[in-house]
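Retry 2 of 3 after timeout on previous attempt. Resubmitting structure tokens to design endpoint.
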């Protein structure tokens, strides 16, 4: 059995909104959510379908949020270094470290998209730590680019779009 309250909260719906979405009364939904009454199979299936559709849409949104692949970005950075005559092992290592930070930033963005900027802590709502971590990771990424002598203007792809 799914946790109805958890599902409703993941869908960002109020109890009233969930009841309306399912076409049932508010009191009926409250009884299902509080486990005072067991929902019929068709309601459970509708809730599971809503959650599945929501998660698929969210996952698709996250998948399309990354404009460039890891390989593309790494190639752009290495090409920019090569054009500057700075394609040395120590700088290639910095590019690899940059790419690790890029992957971390994507994971943090996914967490923020999934959980929002505040999450439930043991004592109630609290800030999502991923927000501050993302800011710090982005700062570190900019520092690495600066140390490599690169900026957005030097790593534009052939089509002229920003990386």
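Retry 2 succeeded. Sequence:
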């Amino acid at each position: 059995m799914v946790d109805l309250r958890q599902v409703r909260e993941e869908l960002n719906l109020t109890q009233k909104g969930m009841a309306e979405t399912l076409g049932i009364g508010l009191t009926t939904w409250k009884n299902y959510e509080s486990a005072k009454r067991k929902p019929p199979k068709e309601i459970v299936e509708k809730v599971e379908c809503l959650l599945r559709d929501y998660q698929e849409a969210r996952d698709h949104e996250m998948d399309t949020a990354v404009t460039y692949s890891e390989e593309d970005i790494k190639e752009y950075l290495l090409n920019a270094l090569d054009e500057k005559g700075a394609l040395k092992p120590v700088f290639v290592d910095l590019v690899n470290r940059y790419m690790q930070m890029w992957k971390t930033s994507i994971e943090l963005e996914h967490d923020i998209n999934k959980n929002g900027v505040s999450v439930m802590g043991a004592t109630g709502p609290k800030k999502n730590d991923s927000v501050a971590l993302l800011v710090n990771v982005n700062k570190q990424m900019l520092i690495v680019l600066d140390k490599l002598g690169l900026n957005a203007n030097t790593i534009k792809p052939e089509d002229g779009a920003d990386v």
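Attempt log closed. The longest helix spans residues 89-115.
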